[in-house]
Amino acid sequence: MSSNPDFDRWYAARKVRILLSPTHELETFGNTLVNYHLVSELDDYPGKIRIREGRLEAHQPLVIAPSFSEITTEGFSDEAKAYVEWLKANEENLRILRYGYCLKTDHFSEQIVTDSLAAVTERVKAEVLASRDAFAAVLQGVDDPWDVALVELWRHEVERSAGRNIRELGEKGKLF
Fold it and tell me: Which residues have C-beta within 8 Å of that of residue 125, sequence separation ≥ 6?
């Protein structure tokens, strides 16, 4: 790690490689447990590879409906007031999905092995594929701060699932 935490954070985020995504997307009407396997090389020990395994719980997406009817526009231009009036008239069409997640430590483990990063990564991928776990993911990232990789996995899965989640919420009448 450097002496600059901002650099470390962004470096870690850019270095994440999602090698195997879950075959199923995040659930629309319930929580989803994603079983992650994160492979990283120890910074000062080439050939020493850390494998972390755990669970990432993605919470059911919640629909957030803004309330434009309470907005006041004192001192605003006529254009801004007209725009707020348009928002008030169309607020039933403006919805946002909010996703939450929680790192679970109750199923967390880690081990250090000696081999090449590529060999360990391929072995972990093969084991996960053989397990047929529809909610398993394999990532490669930095060893510290390693948990940035989990935030990137969560962000990736939200982006991948949002379209289906919105469609299903709309079909059940829970969006509008």
Answer: 19, 20, 138
Q: What is the pTM of this model?
A: 0.80
The structure tokens listed for 43 are 């910074």
SS (H, E, C) 94-153: CCEEECCEEEEEEEEEEEEEECCHHHHHHHHHHHHHHHCCCCEEEEECCCCCCCHHHHHH
3-state secondary structure 26-66: CCCCCCEEEEEEEEEECCCCCCEEEEEEEEEEECCCEEECC
Rounded to whole angstroms, the Cα distance separating 94 from 64 reads 9
58 and 25 in contact (C-beta within 8 Å)? no
- Residue with the bigger pLDDT between 174 and 44: it is 44
What percentage of the chain reaches a pLDDT higher than 70? 95
- Separation of alpha carbons 122 and 115, rounded Å: 11
